[in-house]
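Table S2 (text version). Query chain:
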Amino acid sequence: MRAFMSPSMFSTGRYLKHLGYDVRYVRNFTDVDDKIIARAKELGEDPISLSRRYCEEFHRDMVYLHCLRPFVEPRVSDHIPQIIDMIKQILDNGCAYTVGGDVYFSVDRFPEYGKLSGRRLEDNRAGERVAVDSRKNNPADFALWKSTKEGEPYWESPWGRGRPGWHIECSAMSAAYLGHSFDIHGGGMDLVFPHHENEIAQSCAACRDSNIGYWIHNGFVTVDSEKMSKSLGNFFTIRQVIDLYHPLALRLFLLGTHYRSPINYSVVQLESASERIFYIYQTLYDCETVIGLHKVAFDTDSVPPETLDCINTFHNVSVSSMSDDLHTPVLLAALSDPLKIINDMLHTRKGKKQTKRIESLAVLEKTIGNALSVLGLMPTTYCEVLQQLKEIALRRAKLTEEHILQKIEERTEARKNKDYERSDDIRKDLSNVGIALMDSPDGTSWRPAIPLAMQELQTASK
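Corresponding structure-token output:
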């Protein structure tokens, strides 16, 4: 399976590997284009150095989010010879022309132009998505090579000094590492036109056998129904988000929406994802702890029929949902039943009396763990990530654990003195900042929760 994808398709590579495919995943970096050059000028920095610095920061973010590393990460500046060779081939095939030191692709020479986006050439208005240039044969023609301008990086070429156009780089680099035909090409919805449309045209112009099996495009991140963008000033960086929310909570939040659909960013949604992932890991940690107290060898024949039914149902939903265009929200929702069964077996009188209880817990924990691995949500240890989730919750609440433990002691004393009003006030004060108190025969503990005001907001919106 050969794929040229963005990191937004979070679980594509893992799921394909889970199915047994040998995945060759390529993720390219544009390290020279108009925007990078303009930004470098503002900062007084070399464009390539600026790009390299941001690439390194991007890698850090992808590690935080448990994204798999690609097979290779080509950069434009390292592949100028391949780009020039492809432009030569397009020219030789009569699908491009030169104007001075520039080279333009001729869309009129590719009758299928628009087949991906469904747009017709006559629908395109010059100045919107294509540069206005009177030297073009057709306003929709796009640059394959741009002649050098003062202060810009450049390379030598048969057409003079210059640099690649934006679109040609992806075609050249994907062909270099995957061949002219490969299985999956991914990217943002905003790239369908003109970027991916132009990629198809120039790739086919260079090689008639060029073909992409599947195009997959992720939806936008929105804030109050508006696309998140730098120009609108309504954007958040990954670093800003994970300062207050665990990276795995952010990943769960993103996987909770189908990749083709827009994701509406909100603090309430992140709080909900954070609470949910704490519940998942706490359940599995408790399960792991109980299993560790018993040395039980088991196979599927030793597991009760009702447990097997749950596992089989979950497996069927997992396969059908993920195989149907990676419907991760359906798989996440399907986790509820096996998690509930585990909690019943751990904490209810009836559940603790079930036959083959430990065997059931072991196979359920393994089943859920496998699903989390496919989704990239499996932590190194449950204990470690639970502690991290609690520490970040304290940061959001602007409290220390010592303060909470002190409040628990005060509440315990109030309950002994039958001062239930004081006891309720303490619980509510902590609940207001996202700290839930849990009473059990062993005493009172605390866990992160959605702040009370946000819980009420959620309830009101339903």
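Notes on Table S2: Residues 267-292 form the longest helix (26 residues). Residues 2 and 178 are 6 Å apart (CA to CA).
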